[in-house]
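Case study 2.
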Amino acid sequence: MTEIFINSKEQFNQIITDKAAVVAYFSTKDCNVCKILKPKIVNLFATDFPKVQFVYVNVNNLKELAAQNSVFSVPTILLYVEGRETLRNSRNINLDEFRDTVNRIYKMLFE
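Prediction:
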């Protein structure tokens, strides 16, 4: 799995359209929770859900994109399936519950 750093709203929308499943991690460089959580999320998708494209969105650089997706706190994790938002988690994320929910969606989509 390759992590993509989003540079524009157009790039983000293109990836969401082109890929069957995309997880978007919205954060900032100053988010202390994100410094611990993001590596765990990246590893989770790399090992358990390799067919899902991981993208990182720096909210400070792409405020319009964050607003377009109703992201008002960080971290926010959005899972898109076939271009539609399917799962949203913000701030306090329970990794076990998150993994279980993504696993159900992943099995329906790829197995």
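The first strand starts at residue 3 and ends at 5.
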